[in-house]
């Protein structure tokens, strides 16, 4: 067991004693997984050195988390924040949600104007990704079935992503966008 993980076990001993034992043990397990990730990426001497930058690095490397899983980890990190005496809360996870995507009921010009106003945002909206994927597919004259065979994704999933469905999985969008950027040019010449 790592140094940070041992320190988390020591700090969380009293926390695990009260309340739902199973849930609290899961939370401590999540805190330990976070600490092990931090120790793999950086050398820290103590838990007090953990900051928001470490949490953001954790979210960026675990973008495949389902929204529920990411939320569970965030709750565990909130407990860790309190245990080590930090003020405030850790940064929330970066997942596709209704807060980070644009409304599908808006027109294309409204979406373009909203995106122009959010130029400091690093992530593209689901609508922009969907448009880029669909344009790449049309430019190469590929059907959804051909893309489905090449990526291993279900045809309905591809259709939903291209339609800008906000409830799609990040891993599927990532797989499709990677395929659009890297493989469309090589598939049909």
Features of this protein?
189 residues; mainly alpha; 434 Repressor (Amino-terminal Domain); 2 domains; elongated; disordered C terminus
Helix proportion: 55-70%
Shape: elongated
**Radius of gyration of CA atoms, rounded to a whole number:** 21 Å
The amount of beta strand, in percent, is under 5%
Overall description:
With 189 residues, the protein is an all-alpha fold. It has two domains: 3-83; 108-187, Orthogonal Bundle (434 Repressor (Amino-terminal Domain)), CATH 1.10.260. It has ten helices and no strands. Helix 1 (3-17) packs antiparallel against helix 2, helix 2 crosses helix 4 and helix 6 (126-139) packs parallel to helix 9. The protein is elongated and about 60 Å long. The chain starts with a helix and ends with a helix.
